[in-house]
Specification:
single chain, mainly alpha, about 200 residues, 2 domains
Amino acid sequence: MTELTITKGEHTRQAIVEAAHQLFIAQGYHGTSMRQIARQAGIALGGVYNHFPSKEAIFRAVFFAYHPYRDVLPALEAARGESIEDLLHDAADHMLAAIDKRPHFLNLLFIEIVEFKNIHTQELFTALLPRGMRILEQVKNAPDKLRAIPEPMLIRTFIGLFFSYYLTELIFSRIAPPAFSENAMHYFVDIYLHGILETCLPQSS
């Protein structure tokens, strides 16, 4: 009986989260009411409050459930390469494949930034940072020599690389010429590693 009750409760909770996700994406956070979430989930309004005390609590559950870290972190851990360059190219490809599974996440992220000032992102970041540092160790163990850059900044700049690619792809890919997107991630990683200036090696005397 207890197992059945827990299973039914979890099923109802999941229905609420899925319904809220659909509504938040379609009409935004403020445009969505608890009553609409209940109707979308096919349950009574009181049933929603049995699982979540507020709409903010529902958004937190949605944000965590649909955050791409569930796919991105395993993808990064699976990245391989004999050099840091090969490793980062492989990691970037894995990240793109992972984020494609959650195409509406940026909608949730904008709600998180505007409405909640990143409080849920901070909570998630604190929980996931140790795992991110372990992934960084894989980079540090590559044969190439890294510059003396603080480890947290290496993580931040790589995340920044990914988001700058993803945002510009989302905004411009449909209106820009094909060259704007062709092998784009390859160039993003290449510029991340080597910059945009051609290195002028000193001529031997």
